[in-house]
Amino acid sequence: MRLRKIQKTSVSLTELGFGASVIGNLYRVTPAADAAAALDTAWDAGIRYFDTAPHYGLGLSEQRLGAALRHRPRDEYVISSKVGRLLVPNQEPRGVDTEGFVVRDDLRRQWDFSRDGVLRSIEDTLERTGLDRLDIVYLHDPDDHWRQAALEAMPTLADLRDQGVIGAIGAGMNQSAMLARFLRETAADMVMLAGRYSLLDQSALDDVLPAAQEHGKSVVAVGVFNSGLLSQDRPTEGMKYDYQDAPPELIARAQAIADVCEQHGTTLPAAAIAFPHTHPSIINVTLGMRTPEQVGRNVELHGQYIPDGLWDDLRAQGLIRSDVLMGHGGGRDERCL
Questions:
Q1: Is 197 known to be catalytic?
Q2: CATH at 158
Q3: Is there a contact between 42 and 78 (Cβ–Cβ < 8 Å)?
Q4: Cys-Cys crosslink for 20: which of 9, 52, 138, 156, Cβ 3.0 to 4.6 Å?
């Protein structure tokens, strides 16, 4: 699996990454054996970038990921986690977490983008994973905390990066406008862009992607299925878009894109994974994977050949924006795993 370098750093990512939110019991229980088998399958397929966060399952995702990676050669993989939500004792537990994860709520999340909060969060993550270091650290959803995130948290991460403790730093969000500010106004090397550069939403072309190109920084794309609407060959009613029921007009548009994919001998989910890679600043697509079967399917989809004519036809039919860029830019690492 091809590696691509985070610009201006020494860190390289496989083009496909393993998103570990779902093995933190997102929406439903994932048995420990399934999570371990999924991670083993990803490793065997050549995936070497793994992303997690304290938020995911109140630490469960970090624990499971650490258990799977700790016996692997440390220099052969890249792991990222996030700061901004400290896990603290919950004085009023109700039994189950209320933020989408099926886990006990003995802990609760506490927003904290202070210097002390960042350092404590990283220390806690290292303890939960059992690893000696993190390669990438992102600020996690700082939407309502710009000032503290930009003026305290990011400089703290920059200090750790400059000391060689962390390889790269950035921010991850579901919006693109503030991510563009992080690229332009802070020491961030990269951002994790959720859902804003997909076959159904190219709004990142208005802010974060031009900022990345202008400043020579990198982007990791997540949420490329837009919560599920792009995950099947044929979209149907009842599928989700950005965590809600997809409106009829978006279902119709996804079906139209699926028709064009079929004409070019490919499928909607394969095109959804391939599409972000066409932008020169996007170096990785990370997908949530719960089982070995999901890993195998995603790896197969990622490996499918997508003809350039597909993008041309989608633009010509007004199904993607006419200003969509094509072709990788700088940062490619020709090594393959």
A1: no
A2: 3.20.20.100
A3: no
A4: 52
